[in-house]
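Module 6 notes. Inverse folding takes a fixed backbone as the condition and produces residue identities as the prediction. Think of it as a translation problem where the source language is geometry and the target language is the twenty amino acids. Below is one complete input and output pair. Work through it position by position during the lab.
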């Protein structure tokens, strides 16, 4: 593991730029939130979550992970649920159409009978 940046005393607010720097500055100011941003070094969209440790400490917990890994399962679950909902709606529509057709069949028979009676009565 490369820890040279620790040995050199790297200061994150000076060593970062763009949205990553905004996230670091937010964390250093004591905010509790998360932020998504593109990190050019990894060439990935990342998500960072941070919050102060509290209890009089000036430390902050800062966790960063690739957006795809963090939200990937949620995206997969959303797609799966959408497909299931569409399939259920299509099945419900087909089932409803079949039930309506079967339910209306006796009425069609009555309609045909009434029409025949009306024709015969008019002669």
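Target side of the pair, the amino acids:
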């Amino acid at each position: 593991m490369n820890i040279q940046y620790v040995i050199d005393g790297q200061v994150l607010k000076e060593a970062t730029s763009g949205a990553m720097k905004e996230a670091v500055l937010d964390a250093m100011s004591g905010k509790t939130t998360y932020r998504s941003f593109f990190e050019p070094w990894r060439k990935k969209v990342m998500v960072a979550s941070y919050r102060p440790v509290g209890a009089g400490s000036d430390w902050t917990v800062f966790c960063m992970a690739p957006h795809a890994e963090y939200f990937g399962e949620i995206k997969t679950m959303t797609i799966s649920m959408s497909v299931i909902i569409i399939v259920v709606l299509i099945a419900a529509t087909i089932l409803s159409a079949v039930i309506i057709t079967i339910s209306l069949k006796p009425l069609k028979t009555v309609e045909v009978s009434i029409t025949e009676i009306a024709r015969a009565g008019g002669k």
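Reference fact for the lab report: Strands lie at 33-39, 44-52, 60-66.
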